[in-house]
């Protein structure tokens, strides 16, 4: 499925789409629950995926009936993440090529992530692409996180384009749900961690950012 009109802007999710940070989160979730004698299974990971950290960790607390306060668990998980991410962060496949293709078209591009601002800036700086985006929207910019459409409606506003003229690339079901609800041209690009997700409402589900249909969308 291709858009009816040319795409005027592109907004990227971050974790699992631009950066392999979900690999680290897999280890963080496992370690956090190992300390409590619990397991981090695929169903729990999928339920947490794409949500702001406090929301995701509330899911973890309810899932395993933990006694932890969410703020304490956020702080612990954050510290564990940065310990485990040292030297481990990498761009996902074809990110450089995709950014170059968007830049060649002269389209504005932004990031819309459920992460915190300091986290997003630190992650994108670590992999060398922070300055290639016109804006970074984070959990602190919205009142409701994904799957609410708020962050993608705000992204369209920042771009100065109608939502249906904005391409959104998302790796998770939760994030794609937000993009679809915003009326964006949403494309699912699952990572190995989200390969089993459903992406209802997406224009299509790409295998990776190398999928030729993404280039076709940009060429319309």
Can you tell me about this structure?
44% of the residues lie in helices and 10% in strands. The chain has 220 residues and is an alpha/beta fold. It has a six-stranded parallel sheet with strand order 3-2-1-4-5-6, sandwiched between helices. α8 links the parallel β4 and β5.
What are the key terms here?
220 residues; alpha/beta; Rossmann fold; DNA polymerase, domain 1; 6 strands; 44% helix; globular
How would you describe the shape?
A: globular
Distance between the termini: 11 Å
Count of DSSP-assigned helices? 9
Biggest sheet, spatial arrangement of strands: 3-2-1-4-5-6
Q: Report the mean per-residue pLDDT as an integer.
A: 96
H/E element order: EHHHHHEHEHEHEEH
Q: What would you give as the CATH superfamily of the largest domain?
A: HAD superfamily/HAD-like
Count of domains: 2
Strand content: 5-15%
Residue share in helices?
Answer: 40-55%
Instruction: Count every beta strand, where a strand is a DSSP E run of 2 or more residues.
Output: 6
Largest sheet: 6 strands, parallel
Radius of gyration: 17 Å
Class inferred from helices and paired strands? alpha/beta
The fold-level CATH name of the largest domain is: Rossmann fold
Q: Provide the low-confidence segments as ranges.
A: none
CATH class call of the largest domain: Alpha Beta
Assigned CATH architecture of the largest domain: 3-Layer(aba) Sandwich
Keywords: Hydrolase
Pfam families: Hydrolase (PF00702)
Organism: Pirellulimonas nuda
Enzyme class: hydrolase
Compose a concise summary of this entry.
The chain is α/β, with parallel strands linked by helices. The chain has nine helices and six strands.
């Amino acid at each position: 499925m291709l858009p009816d009109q040319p795409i005027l802007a592109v907004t990227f999710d971050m974790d699992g789409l631009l950066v392999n940070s979900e690999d680290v989160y897999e280890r963080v979730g496992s370690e956090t629950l190992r300390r409590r004698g619990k397991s981090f299974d695929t169903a729990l990971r999928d339920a947490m995926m794409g949500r702001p950290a406090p929301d995701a960790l509330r899911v973890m607390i309810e899932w395993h009936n933990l006694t932890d306060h969410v703020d304490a668990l956020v702080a612990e998980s954050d510290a564990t993440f940065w310990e485990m991410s040292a030297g481990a962060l990498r761009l996902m496949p074809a990110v450089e090529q995709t950014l170059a293709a968007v830049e060649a078209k002269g389209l504005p591009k932004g990031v819309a992530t459920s992460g915190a601002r300091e986290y997003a800036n630190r992650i994108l700086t670590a992999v060398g692409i922070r300055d290639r985006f016109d804006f970074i929207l984070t959990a602190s910019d919205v009142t409701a996180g994904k799957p609410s459409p708020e962050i993608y409606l705000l992204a369209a506003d920042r771009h100065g384009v109608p939502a249906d003229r904005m391409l959104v690339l998302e790796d998770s079901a939760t994030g794609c749900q937000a993009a679809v609800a915003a009326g964006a041209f949403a494309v699912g690009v699952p990572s190995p961690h989200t390969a089993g997700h459903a992406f209802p409402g997406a224009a299509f589900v790409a295998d990776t950012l190398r999928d030729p249909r993404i280039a076709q969308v940009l060429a319309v």
